[in-house]
Every structure is written in structure tokens, then in C-alpha cells.
Specification:
By secondary structure, this protein is α/β, with parallel strands linked by helices. The protein has eleven helices and seven strands. The chain starts with a strand and ends in a 25-residue tail after the last helix.
């Protein structure tokens, strides 16, 4: 089995990814069993000024340092359970020391398998305003919808004021459900939870739409790579191939 490296960027989402990956092992391999996994996390505070300034290059350098440490720990490949971080990982630069899965491609591939035609996108402001999900969904013939400006502000504020700090309240859960309801009224047939902490708040039983849980989908894909059930990835940062299954190729 291959050794997974988790390139963490925010704590709660990374912890959920680690737990979900190990739980896949418990289900598939037996009690207490899973492929080797190492997690590396450089504090999000180091990168927040650059995110706010829209300067992704120093963030890529920070993330690359984590990948170097994962490689030194013996990891064979990496996943990054942070959707927004992929905007920095896609910046031009030296190849990352390990190949990795691209989270937006994993989610978009699942949306296509589910037969979705219009998917709402909930994440940080950077992700909702960014190109990742419109590009990956469009490559599979799926339309992407984001909440209106006021709802985007609500979603973003709750992520950084609460979710990344491990705070999950009923009030915020209701606020997110209302946002999803409005996306349903605009014709969405699913909602992609593409901040990796959102699935801790918005569970399928409270969502007005079927959910695409980016964290658990990525953990499952990583488990399949580690056990040989999924092709080994070749993407090492930089522009990604948006075609279905494109994380296994390098443009």
C-alpha cells in the first residue's frame, strides 16, 4: 500500500480528512487497519495576509514546504483537504516533490457520476469567486452556481469566524441551510461543500439539496490510490488538466 501525505492548510478540515481516510481503512481492511498516513500543517495564520492581498505565490511556497516535509517522511503522494489552497497550488512554479490528487477534480468527477446538471458551490469567498469549480464542472457538462453576494459574505464569514476554529452552531447551520435552499430555488440539483470544514456543519440530513462532501470524497479517493484501486496521480502543481480524471495527467 502507498503512504499518503496530507498537506494541511486549515486544522479542522485536515483532521476530518485524516479521520475519514482511516475510517475507509477500518471498513475495507479491518479493525484498526489503514494505509500509512502523515499529516503536515503550517499554521494558516502564516498565509492569511497573502490570501487577503490576493498574492498566491508565497502561499504556494508555504504549501510546497509542507509537501517537501511529507516527502521526507516517506509519503508517496499527497492530498490537500483545502479547496482554496488549490488556487495557490495551481500557480506556476517548480514541480512539487510529490504527485497529488486535485480536490476539485475529485468532486466534479463525483458530480458527473451522480448525473448532476447544476451544482451550487459553497466555500470561502476566494473559492466561490475563483475559477476552480466553474472550470472543472464545465469540463463535465455541469453548470456551477454560487450564492448571491450577501449569502457569499455570510458563508465566508462563518468559515473564518467559526468553522476553522472548531465552532459549529445551530444558528450558522440554519443560515447555511437557507443559502442552500436559495440555490435549490435557482435550479441546483446538488450543492458542493467545498470548504473542507463545511461538512462538519452541514450534514446531508439538514441540507435542502444532496451534498458533495469534498473532504470525504477526497479521503475516499486517497484511500483508493493508496490501495491500488485508483490510478496513481501525476499532478505536481501548476495548471491542472480539467478533463474528467485529469488529476492522473500533467498538462
Amino acid at each position: 500500500m502507498k503512504h499518503l501525505g496530507i498537506l494541511a492548510h486549515s486544522m479542522e478540515g485536515a483532521a476530518l480528512c485524516l479521520r475519514a481516510f482511516c475510517q475507509e481503512g477500518f471498513r475495507e481492511l479491518g479493525p484498526d487497519d489503514h494505509p500509512d498516513v502523515t499529516l503536515d500543517l503550517i499554521a494558516l495564520a502564516r498565509s492569511m495576509p497573502a490570501w487577503d492581498a490576493g498574492d498566491h505565490d508565497p502561499i504556494r511556497a508555504t504549501l510546497a514546504e509542507s509537501v517537501r516535509r511529507l516527502a521526507a517522511a516517506g509519503a508517496d503522494f499527497f492530498v490537500c483537504p483545502d479547496n482554496t489552497a488549490h488556487m495557490a497550488l495551481e500557480r506556476p512554479g517548480p514541480d512539487l516533490p510529490l504527485p497529488g490528487l486535485h480536490i476539485a477534480q475529485v468532486v466534479a468527477d463525483q458530480a458527473a457520476r451522480d448525473g448532476r446538471t447544476r451544482v451550487g458551490v459553497l466555500g470561502t469567498r476566494y473559492t466561490m469567486d475563483g475559477p476552480l469549480y466553474p472550470r472543472e464542472l464545465a469540463a463535465r457538462g455541469i453548470a456551477a452556481e454560487v450564492p448571491d453576494a450577501a449569502d457569499r459574505d455570510t458563508v465566508h464569514r462563518i468559515i473564518f469566524a467559526e468553522l476553522v476554529n472548531g465552532v459549529f452552531t445551530d444558528e450558522s447551520r440554519r443560515a447555511y441551510a437557507d443559502v442552500v435552499k436559495r440555490l435549490a430555488e435557482r435550479g441546483c440539483d446538488a450543492v458542493a461543500l467545498v470548504c473542507t470544514e463545511i461538512p462538519l456543519l452541514v450534514t446531508p440530513d439538514v441540507s435542502p439539496l444532496p451534498t458533495l462532501d469534498s473532504t470525504r470524497l477526497l479521503a475516499r479517493a486517497a484511500f483508493e490510490v493508496a490501495t491500488g484501486a485508483r490510478p496513481f496521480p501525476a499532478w505536481r502543481g501548476g495548471p491542472a488538466d480539467a478533463s474528467p480524471g485529469g488529476e492522473t495527467t500533467r498538462t
